[in-house]
Write a structure and sequence with these properties.
Structural class: alpha/beta
Order of helices and strands: EHEHEHEHEHEHHHHH
Length: about 220
């Protein structure tokens, strides 16, 4: 099996080199590039098309914009944010931009590797302690977006097909997306609509429809 190609983007030289050295030491990984800013991330992702991109959030350039641009070009690339920021809004914004995982820099190398493996398998990974905070915030009545959520065009397309009983594979085929990307949009829909499963997403979208119709 070919090694997993990976790119490291971080503006701290010592940390960046440390990550490069760590992954270069694994037989199942091949480091194909590294950079120090958002522009580097976009350029290297385009040039190398790595399987995995590990990127800091707070660095020169707009990391969220870089993530979104990379995601638009590649639905399959695994993007892991590796950052010191434990702010819930930063994590949510990163996932909405297209990241597959959000890992805090206090994590070990094995934990970062575990996050990458989870993301490759189609899961959305968030460092457990921060994930708990996110769930608490998202479920607060005052913070819950519920039927007042704003859905992107793609999120609405996924929601409509879900309402018609389509499976993730069927949605992926109809929208020309990968199943992994459809799962990513499902995660976003559940967050935005304060839903815990597919059925609750459908019910929430129905309420969202009724609210927009009434307005």
């Amino acid at each position: 099996m070919a090694p997993i190609s990976i790119v490291i983007i971080d503006d701290h030289p010592i940390l960046r080199q440390g990550l490069v050295d760590i992954f270069a030491g694994y037989d199942d990984y091949a480091v194909v590039g590294s950079g120090a800013c958002g522009a580097d991330a976009v350029a290297i992702a385009q040039q190398q098309s790595p399987d995995v991109l590990v990127i800091d959030l707070v660095m020169p350039g707009n990391a969220l914009e870089a993530i979104a641009r990379i995601r638009m070009k590649s639905a399959s690339m695994v993007i892991i944010v590796f950052t010191a920021s434990d702010r819930v809004d930063h994590a949510i914004n990163a996932l909405e931009a297209g990241a597959n995982g959000y890992v805090l820099k206090g994590s070990t190398a094995n934990e970062l590797r575990g996050a990458i493996v989870s993301a490759i398998q189609g899961e959305t990974f968030v460092t457990p302690g921060l994930a708990s905070k996110m769930i608490t915030v998202l479920r607060r009545p005052s913070a819950s977006k519920g039927c007042g959520a704003h859905l992107s065009v793609r999120e609405e397309q996924v929601a409509r097909l879900l309402m018609h009983g389509c499976s993730n594979k069927s949605i992926a085929d109809r929208l020309n997306l990968s199943e992994k990307t459809v799962k990513h949009y499902m995660t976003l829909l559940m967050h935005k609509l304060d839903a815990h499963n597919r059925v609750e997403v459908v019910l929430a979208v129905q309420k969202w429809d009724q609210k927009n119709y009434d307005n």
